[in-house]
Amino acid sequence: REAKVQLKEQKGPLDWVNVTNSGENLSGVPSVLRVTPKQLKHNNGTEGRPAWSSFQGKVYNITPYFPFHPGGELELGRAAGKDCEKLFMGMHPWVNLEKMLGKCFVGTM
Predict the structure, then answer these.
(1) Distance between CA 87 and CA 36 in Å, rounded?
(2) Using H for helix, E for strand and C for coil, what is the string for the chain?
(3) pLDDT (tens digit, 9 = 90+) per residue, 25-66?
(4) What is the pTM of this model?
(5) Which domains does the chain have, with CATH numbers?
(6) Residues 34, 95, 7, CA angle at the centre, nearest 5°?
(7) CA distances from 88 to 3, 30, 71, 101 (A)
(8) In sequence order, what are the residues at sequence separation of 6 or more whose Cβ sits closer than 8 angstroms to the Cβ of residue 2?
(9) Would you say 63 and 108 are in contact if contact means Cβ atoms under 8 Å apart?
């Protein structure tokens, strides 16, 4: 299991809750999309693109969560542009991803 990293000030779990309650559009899209595998792969956080990841058929924009991830940005980046279910469940199966990233929901596969 990877060690946690030192988060910057105001980037802890309660700060993330405040961000999700801010009303800001964290999904990065104007409306819910039907996401193709090609679109998911394309949105991998490189070249200025957002980082999307899918979990149980739902796609989330994980870009806003990068500075808040306890394992660090590099660890979260492993999920960018692909399905993260196996990785996520292998690291922290007790975490409710939908509750944590619900405001980052982009669409379904």
Answers:
(1) 20
(2) CCCCCCCCCCCCHHHHHHHHCCCCCCCCCCCCEECCHHHHHHCECCCCCCEEEEECCEEEECHHHHHHCCCCHHHHHCCCCEECHHHHHHHCCCCCHHHHHHHHEEEEC
(3) 999 999 999 999 999 999 999 999 999 999 999 999 999 999
(4) 0.90
(5) 13-108 (3.10.120.10)
(6) 100
(7) 15, 27, 12, 13
(8) 71, 72, 75, 91
(9) no
